[in-house]
Amino acid sequence: MSETSAPENTALGQAGGAGYAGDVDVATAWEGVKSSANALLVDVRTQAEWNFVGIPDLSSVDKKPVFIEWQVFPAMDVNGSFVDAVTAAAPDKSAPIYLLCRSGARSKSAAIALTQAGYAECYNISQGFEGRHDAEQHRGSTDGWKARGLPWVQG
């Protein structure tokens, strides 16, 4: 993928008319962040999740994730300042933005909101940081950023 081309969402398919650029798996998001100089990873989980579960580590590609809650803990109300906070961190609305939450639900809503605000390439990382539950109802072992062995650190 070149710096000017969008990721090929072959692993999960395009979002079509869903209101954002599409869903990508964690490997596609990681490749996009690594290969595009202006690509951003926006982690939309809560402060508690960042502190206790862990965060993506982009230091190997000389980048840092952007941390902006989509829903504010503990009430989990939608963050009314979310779009403004992203705009302050990422004023280039043509830059690819990869949105990450626990399992892909909040990040999808955030991708839609940013697309409605004029961002052209908002991708939902559908497997999230921890992924879906395993047979024992635990997260982080079946899919997602952590389970796929992508770089991360624990707070």
Description of the structure:
With 155 residues, this protein is α/β, with parallel strands linked by helices. The protein has one domain: Oxidized Rhodanese, domain 1. Helix content is 23%, strand content 17%. It contains four helices and nine strands. The protein has a five-stranded parallel sheet with strand order 1-8-7-2-4. A two-stranded antiparallel sheet has the order 3-9. Strands 5-6 form a two-stranded antiparallel sheet. Strand 5 (71-72) and strand 6 form a beta hairpin. The longest helix has 12 residues, at 105-116. It is globular, with a radius of gyration of 14 Å. Residues 1-14 have low confidence and may be disordered.
Keywords summarizing the entry:
Oxidized Rhodanese, domain 1, two-stranded antiparallel ribbon, 4 helices, disordered N terminus, alpha/beta, 155 residues
Helices and strands, with pairings:
Layout: E1 22-24, H1 26-35, E2 40-43, H2 47-52, E3 55-56, E4 66-67, E5 71-72, E6 77-78, H3 82-89, E7 96-100, H4 105-116, E8 121-125, E9 152-153
Parallel strand pairs: 1-8, 2-4, 2-7, 7-8
Antiparallel strand pairs: 3-9, 5-6
CATH names the topology as: Oxidized Rhodanese, domain 1
Strand order of the largest sheet: 1-8-7-2-4
What is the number of strand segments? 9
Cα gyration radius (Å): 14 Å
- Kindly state the percentage of residues in helix: 10-25%
What is the 3D shape? globular
Distance between the termini: 32 Å
Main pleated-sheet profile: 5 strands, parallel
Strand content: 15-25%
Instruction: State the low-pLDDT regions, or none.
Output: 1-14
Helix-strand string:
EHEHEEEEHEHEE
Q: Please, how many domains?
A: 1
Overall CATH architecture: 3-Layer(aba) Sandwich
Could you state the CATH homologous superfamily?
Rhodanese-like domain
Instruction: Report the top-level CATH class.
Output: Alpha Beta
